[in-house]
Amino acid sequence: MRGKKRVFLGILSFSFIFFTVLLIAFVYSLNSGKTEFYRYFMIATAFFLLTVTVLVGIALAVSFYVILSRRSSKSAISFISSFVDLFYPIVLFASKVLRIKEEKIEQSYIAIKNFFFNKDLKRYEPKDILILAPHCIQYSGCKFKVTYDIDNCRKCGKCQINDLVNLKEKYGINVAVATGGTLARKIVKDLRPKVIIAIACERDLTSGMQDVKQIPVYGIINDRPNGPCFNTRVDVSEVENMVKKLLNGG
């Protein structure tokens, strides 16, 4: 379930064109006003649209620069990453107008954020790395809860908690399981990681990436062969490959 960066950027481009056309229409209508109040209102509205249009244009330009260039400055990546978060609601609204599924927008958003993450990849110590997984990855019939202590796993092999524990033991990293956003934020606050590998569905990953702006987050969308929030799975090889990259600095 990998998203495509072009979906998000395409809708952002559509928004840029839309605001540009709207701005031209408002400027044209300035001459048709019959009262001073009307003219001032239209000028204020046109100024607002101009600001939004310029910001969207800058965001698009920097986005394509970062994506197409082999080398990108950290400031440029940080700048455009913030703009992606800022304009996410606009892109989401535009996608509803265009009748594009919200899940596709979320997947595209995650793909863009992961792309920027890889562009600014650096080396971390094992103690600074946190794998944060959802509780639904645990076998639903298991009696041993791992949300507060993943070492409670008995390694029966019925779910992939066993695989995550193995990664924890193999690389000496932190691994935690959260039941929701509140517990996830508490785990991050308690462990104070410098980088997070987050496993979740599209919606939870998107909201989580927007919540934790001060810590780099790499998102991995889980597999849901049994439906949402029930005995979900994850590509463990992708998780391990990212752990290796973080330990080696790329």
TrEMBL record:
The transmembrane residues are: 7-28, 40-68, 75-94
Report if keyword Transferase is assigned. Answer: no
Q: Name one Pfam family in it.
A: DUF116
What highest taxon heads this organism's lineage? Bacteria
**Which InterPro entries has this protein been placed in?**
DUF116
Sorted keywords for this record are: Membrane, Transmembrane, Transmembrane helix
Question: What's the protein here called?
Answer: DUF116 domain-containing protein
